[in-house]
């Protein structure tokens, strides 16, 4: 049975490996190879991940399959922008395990941590052309809240939907 655990700095190579495997599959038909490479290095470099792992109100979770092999991760931030919402900054799975309930397990764990911290909702950004991810989140009760275009440097932008879900 799959499980979820808290990540630590020793997990940085694991997180990087999952991201560098999942991103080209996830975004290959959406973003240019140059933008994928730029974003991977910007978001998943050693220093960037260490900052997330040690960030105030932040938590990184590792999903493991039944053999305890890491197959996904999520990075979240409690009380995002001082609101009672937990922001899901990252949620990626190896392509080989997508559709097997592990993403749903991560969302369930995130919801528990968020509720324990007093947050009332979950929020996230998703690329508006990533139909698989949008469908996944909608199936779990997330709704589109608004659109957002975010400049990320080097002439690149994230063209996203902001989605949200109330916690029960």
From TrEMBL:
Tell me the GO molecular function terms: acyltransferase activity, transferring groups other than amino-acyl groups
Q: Matching PROSITE patterns, A to Z? A: GNAT
What Pfam families does the annotation carry?
Answer: Acetyltransf_1
Task: State what protein this is by name.
Answer: N-acetyltransferase domain-containing protein
Q: Which PANTHER family match?
A: L-AMINO ACID N-ACETYLTRANSFERASE
Q: Which residues are the signal sequence here?
A: none
Could you tell me which InterPro entries the record lists for this protein? Acyl_CoA_acyltransferase, GNAT_dom, MshD_Acetyltransferase
Matching SUPFAM superfamilies: Acyl-CoA N-acyltransferases (Nat) (SSF55729)
Q: Which residues form the N-acetyltransferase domain?
A: 2-168
């Amino acid at each position: 049975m799959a499980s979820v655990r808290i990540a630590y700095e020793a997990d940085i190579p694991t997180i990087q490996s999952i991201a560098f495997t999942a991103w080209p599959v996830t975004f290959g038909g959406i973003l240019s190879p140059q933008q994928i490479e730029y974003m991977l290095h910007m978001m998943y470099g050693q220093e960037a991940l260490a900052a997330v792992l040690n960030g105030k109100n932040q938590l990184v979770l590792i999903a493991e399959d039944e053999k305890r092999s890491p197959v996904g991760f999520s990075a979240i931030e409690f009380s995002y922008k001082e609101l009672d919402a937990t922001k899901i900054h990252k949620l990626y799975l190896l392509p080989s395990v997508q559709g097997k309930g592990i993403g749903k397990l991560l969302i369930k764990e995130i919801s528990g941590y968020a509720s324990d911290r007093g947050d009332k909702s979950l929020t996230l950004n998703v690329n508006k052309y990533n139909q698989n991810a949008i469908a996944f989140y909608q199936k779990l009760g997330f709704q589109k809240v608004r659109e957002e275009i975010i400049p990320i440097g080097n002439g690149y932008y994230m063209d996203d939907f902001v989605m949200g879900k109330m916690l029960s």
